[in-house]
């Protein structure tokens, strides 16, 4: 056999073995990673002329978030910490006056993305979860169409079993002495570093607004005698810049948990493609501390009283930072950075002070001793 041919065959063999082992390694890595993720095993859609319900079945809890995109108008719902079973249908045509096309895909190694082509406004859809029971898996439900005034779908989910609240740390002891003095309070300004968060009406960034509010709130709380634990005090990621989303969020939880904080408040800005959408909402994890809803209500009412934003209600959610902290924990969407008037407040010194004051007043009410 000529030497040239011999060398050629040897190189082909080496390349083939290399390709085989590389593909095997990638497959092995995916199998290892997917074992820690929730499997999305089915997507089910039902519709009438006015409403569409989309249900994602999973073998365990997932975090989810929704946001709007324009040109064309779409609503995006990300199921985080999840992978999509290859058997799941990924493209749906819907007979509905508001929605006609829905797409599902594995957006990243640990995120399943649902994209709905629609011009519906933020008030016209709702996303919530239903725990697994003896006959049904864990479900993320997405309702589009008429939504009731309290932010929940008019089509109610089947009653979910009561989830026992996780023991509070340090529990009811946080109310032994009324008031803020002596309390340990964890403040989490959302996003930061290479994660800008939502982009505002005039290109302002959520990460800057949340940090300004957080730092102003820190001073108010310390002046009142509290010990304040900040997840960040500068424009930086909390974990390494190359960390995954889950690692970044866990780093924030770790700071609060290791400090044994009495409460945890994550500050965020909401956003939507329709710039007229406005208001304040707060979220708590339904399976967490029994005091979280009270804290969420107090902070939401405090912001609204201080800033006079519309009331979008207190809701349950599976946001990672409120699900993986050991104390009463909430996430506050203080206002819409996509709304021109609310963005002006979020980017002004006076507005920043009002938002911080509202959160402070809510915390003070929570610790007032009448819980």
TrEMBL record:
Residues 253-364 form the MurNAc-LAA domain. Keywords: Hydrolase, Signal. GO terms for molecular function: N-acetylmuramoyl-L-alanine amidase activity. GO terms for biological process: peptidoglycan catabolic process. SMART domains: Ami_3. Residues 1-27 form the signal peptide. InterPro entries: AMIN_dom, MurNAc-LAA_cat, N-acetylmuramoyl_amidase_3. The keyword Cell cycle does not apply. The keyword Hydrolase applies. One of its GO terms (cellular component) is outer membrane-bounded periplasmic space. Pfam families: Amidase_3, AMIN. PANTHER family: N-ACETYLMURAMOYL-L-ALANINE AMIDASE, N-ACETYLMURAMOYL-L-ALANINE AMIDASE AMIC. This is N-acetylmuramoyl-L-alanine amidase. It comes from Pectinatus cerevisiiphilus. The lineage of its organism: Bacteria, Bacillati, Bacillota, Negativicutes, Selenomonadales.
């Amino acid at each position: 056999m000529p030497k040239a041919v011999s060398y050629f065959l040897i190189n082909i063999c080496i390349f083939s073995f290399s390709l085989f082992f590389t593909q095997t390694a990638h497959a092995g890595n995916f199998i290892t990673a997917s074992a820690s993720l929730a499997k999305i095993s089915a997507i089910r859609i039902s519709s009438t002329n006015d409403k569409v319900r989309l249900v994602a079945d999973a073998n365990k809890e997932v975090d989810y978030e929704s946001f709007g995109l324009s040109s064309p108008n779409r609503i995006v719902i990300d199921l985080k910490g999840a992978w999509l079973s290859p058997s799941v249908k990924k493209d749906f045509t819907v007979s509905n006056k508001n929605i006609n096309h829905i797409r599902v895909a594995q957006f990243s190694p640990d995120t399943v993305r649902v994209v709905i082509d629609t011009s519906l406004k933020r008030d016209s859809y709702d996303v919530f979860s239903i725990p697994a029971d003896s006959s049904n898996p864990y479900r993320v439900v997405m309702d589009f169409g008429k939504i009731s005034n309290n932010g929940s779908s008019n089509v109610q989910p089947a009653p979910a079993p009561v989830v026992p609240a996780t023991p509070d740390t340090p529990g009811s002891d946080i109310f032994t002495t009324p008031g803020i003095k002596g309390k340990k309070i964890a403040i989490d300004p959302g996003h930061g570093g290479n994660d800008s968060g939502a982009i505002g009406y005039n290109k302002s960034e959520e990460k800057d607004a949340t940090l300004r509010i957080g730092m102003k709130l820190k001073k108010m709380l310390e002046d009142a005698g509290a010990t304040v634990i900040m997840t960040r005090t500068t424009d930086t990621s909390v974990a390494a810049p190359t960390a995954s989303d889950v690692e970044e969020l866990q780093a924030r939880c770790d700071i609060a948990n290791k400090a044994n904080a009495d409460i945890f408040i994550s500050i965020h800005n909401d956003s939507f493609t329709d710039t007229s959408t406005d208001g304040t909402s707060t979220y708590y994890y339904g399976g967490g501390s029994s005091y979280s809803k009270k804290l969420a209500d107090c902070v939401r009412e405090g912001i609204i009283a201080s800033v006079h934003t519309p009331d979008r209600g207190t809701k349950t959610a599976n946001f990672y930072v409120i699900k993986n902290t050991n104390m009463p924990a909430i996430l506050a969407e203080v206002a819409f950075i996509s709304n021109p008037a609310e963005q002006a407040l979020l980017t002004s010194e006076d507005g920043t002070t009002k938002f911080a004051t509202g959160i402070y007043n809510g915390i003070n009410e929570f610790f007032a001793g009448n819980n």
